[in-house]
Amino acid sequence: MNPASPRRAPMPRGPLSGKRTMLRRGLAMALAALNRGLDRLGFGHWLHRRIHRGLEMPELTLWLRDGVPGLDGLRIAFVSDVHAGSFLDANDLVRVFERVQEAQPDLVLFGGDLINTREREILLFQKALPVLRPRHGVFAVPGNHDHFFGPDIGLWTSFLERHGVQVLLNRGVRIEHGGGSLWLCGVDDLTEGAPDLAAALDGRRHGETAVLLAHHPDFFFEAAAVDVDLTLSGHTHGGQIRVGGWAPIHHSRFGYERGWFQENDCRLYVGRGVGTTVLPLRIDAPPEIPIVTLRSRVVAQAPRPASAGRAVPATV
């Protein structure tokens, strides 16, 4: 199915999540300088490793729509917001990716912000990427931090592709599994890039299950308008620092902060991510790499979907 004319996603706003301006660029550079200073202190690395002892890998289920053939049992590992180079080194990445491989996913999807503020940080993945051996491959989209120095992410893209990662920059691919097919696609970052959902969905068959990688969760507004089954996003870190269940810094104007959300039959999962930015701290927002398993309604009955037309937390 190709989108007729998708609604334009509302632009994110706020000092950290809005479109690039001189003010936001200045703030980002100042925070990056603070981040780099803290990164030089051994205490930050020690603290981040203690945080990673609590890395969660929840087993989640997405029920497919009625009549969708195949795909039952397909396992997807969603890795977002690694922010390598800030409190995480190459050996830390190897340990994280070993845990991902132990979960035996069929697909590994990178949801953006693999690096933090320096292009060369992508080189830290050289030892870790060969650890991943999912049978259907590894795929990625960029996040705002991958675009830190502007729209040209050629080094980032070429490094990943040389190491077997397909970058889904406003495009899609077909995954065949269990007698069925999945349209896997991705878009550029909403705040720093130029996302094009129509291009990403070009080639999708009518009624074909679609999974979209979009770093910023507010892009779900547009994906749900054209019947994308599952959108996987990060960016928010689940708040990273939460006090009494409240996060002082918000990255989504719709409240897409962490976990499941639903619009009609379309679902969004916002992962808390792996790394941190600015401070090597997480409070009430432990790091996570969710494993999403697709299940056919033919095999078992899915829970009743949430009310249509509202963005609400979804149980799937």
Main attributes?
single chain; 316 residues; alpha/beta; 6 helices; disordered C terminus
Describe the protein's architecture and organization.
The protein has about 325 residues and is α/β, with parallel strands linked by helices. The protein contains 6 helices and 12 strands. The protein has helices spanning about 20-40, 40-50, 90-100, 155-160, 195-200, 220-225; strands at about 60-65, 75-80, 105-110, 140, 165, 170-175, 180-185, 210-215, 230-235, 260-265, 265-270, 290-295. The strands form 2 sheets. It has a 6-stranded mixed sheet with strand order 1-12-2-3-4-5. The protein has a 6-stranded mixed sheet with strand order 6-7-8-9-11-10. β4 (about 140), α4 (about 155-160) and β5 (about 165) form a beta-alpha-beta unit. The protein is globular and about 55 Å long. The two termini are about 25 Å apart.
Q: Which regions are unreliable across 5 or more consecutive residues at pLDDT < 50?
A: 300-316
**What is the mean pLDDT?**
86
Strand neighbour order, sheet with most strands: 1-12-2-3-4-5
- Gross CATH architecture: 4-Layer Sandwich
Number of strands: 12
Number of helices: 6
The third-level CATH topology is Purple Acid Phosphatase, chain A, domain 2
Tally of individual domains? 1
Strand content: 15-25%
C-alpha geometry: globular
Instruction: Give the N-terminus to C-terminus distance in angstroms.
Output: 23 Å
CATH superfamily annotation: Metallo-dependent phosphatases
Order of helices and strands: HHEEHEEHEEEHEHEEEE
Largest sheet: 6 strands, mixed
In CATH's first tier, which class applies?
Answer: Alpha Beta
Helix content: 10-25%
CA gyration radius, whole angstroms = 18 Å
What structural category arises from helix and sheet content? alpha/beta
